[in-house]
Amino acid sequence: MLLTVTTTRRPATDLGYLLVKHPDRVHAFDVPTGTAYVMYPEATDDRCTAALVLDVDPQRLRAQKDAFELSQYVNDRPYAASSLLASALAKVFRSALRGASKDRPELAASVLPLEIRVPALRGTSELVTRLFAPLGWTVTATPIPLEAELGGDSRYVDVRLVGELRLADALNHLYILLPVLDDAKHYWVAPDEIEKLLRSGAGWLAGHPEKVLIARRYLAHRRSLATTALQLLEAEEPATEEEEELPVARKAPLAEQRRDAVVAALTEVNAARVLDLGCGGGALLTALLKNRQFTEIVGADVSSRALEQAARRLRLDRLPERQKDRIKLIQTALTYRDDRLRGFDAAVLMEVIEHVDLPRLPALEAAVFGHARPTAVVVTTPNVEYNVHYEGLTGMRHSDHRFEWTRAEFADWASRIATEYGYAVTVRGVGDPDEITGSPTQLALFTISTEVTA
């Protein structure tokens, strides 16, 4: 699928500074459903076009529960702009979405002549116009015809948007409205999607005549989420001079709260040499690298692809030598003993144990707590009792989860591990707690007991 952004403001090649992508290169990014590429089919002082191309791997698409057996292969997802493209846009143009530019801050804040092209987008000309025209775009949405023998138009349109806006505003319009037009998100929608909607819709969504439709579709028609979002939008009023001087607290997504809780636990035990076991794409590693307390950081994962993603996320090839010397990525299976993991101040298993088959869990316990035996271990896992707050969730939070524990089950497991391997343990919640069901995430901090001698 394809999206292009064009400007004619001279020198037009400054678009590369705003997108933080050099016009002379082809840039590749690994995303959960394939590979995203950024390239410039034209780059002159008079006109510059950046193209975002998403190459979807059909085998990495998850079929819907009620779909037919081959639906992950027979679908329009690799071709028509959708929530997949919006997610790729958010990852590839992250700083541009925020309106940040280290090299051209004044240009990032300026209104630019822009042209957006999406050659294949699910929707009708009428709906595309209703969504984009109120935001200052001149909209051309041409229906794509079916094959001649079938006759008529398909359910897709070729969209061209022309207007004068800040680049950040244009990208945020696309980030929200592409999934709205698609009306079929490729991932399960949780309450933290409200925060994404409000953040990217800041300054325009509250006054949009189609805000009800946008909220409902963006939040996958989950009534309670859409109602909450609309109530928050209705509460937006121009701030008084006194209010503008006060900082506005932002509710952090659960994933961010979880990372912060893990880093806080590591700080609590004064860890300097840290293992991130099951590091995945490197979200925690990035946070650890920013903290100078952690002098040696090792990310370990059984998946070579995950390690490649982590390396790209960390930009290992561009890190200064002093930073690069602090971090290392290794491939290993956590259910086997590995001498490279011994001797560390702390190890983290963040949202890892629930991905291990229960019969294999004792092997992981022995490898981590018995053989590697770090001075401290931080473990986080979902609290299954909290799942009742996720509307529409009928199973576990992720299709790859092998189990999810109640607070009592997690506490019993943590107590058994502490007794068996000579650790003391404290258990706490992470995320906004509910009086009955507790917090969405539970965390155990293990420290080698001073009462146990080697």
TrEMBL record:
Boundaries of every Methyltransferase type domain copy: 275-374
Keywords, alphabetical: Magnesium, Metal-binding, Methyltransferase, RNA-binding, RNA-mediated gene silencing, S-adenosyl-L-methionine, Transferase
InterPro entries, per database record: 3'-RNA_MeTfrase_Hen1_bac (IPR024026), Hen1 (IPR026610), Hen1_N (IPR024740), Hen1_N_sf (IPR038546), Methyltransf_12 (IPR013217), SAM-dependent_MTases_sf (IPR029063)
Domain Hen1 N-terminal: residue ranges: 1-233
GO biological process: regulatory ncRNA-mediated gene silencing; RNA methylation
Required cofactor(s): Mg(2+)
Enzyme class: transferase
EC number: 2.1.1.386
Keyword Metal-binding belongs to the record: yes
Gene Ontology MF terms: metal ion binding; RNA binding; small RNA 2'-O-methyltransferase activity
Catalytic activity: small RNA 3'-end nucleotide + S-adenosyl-L-methionine = small RNA 3'-end 2'-O-methylnucleotide + S-adenosyl-L-homocysteine + H(+)
Signal peptide extent: none
Keyword S-adenosyl-L-methionine applies: yes
One Pfam family recorded for the sequence: Hen1_L
Family according to the record: Belongs to the methyltransferase superfamily. HEN1 family.
NCBIfam families per the UniProt record, alphabetical: bacter_Hen1
PANTHER family reported for this sequence: HEN1, SMALL RNA 2'-O-METHYLTRANSFERASE
Name of the protein described by the UniProt record: Small RNA 2'-O-methyltransferase
Organism (species): Actinoplanes aureus
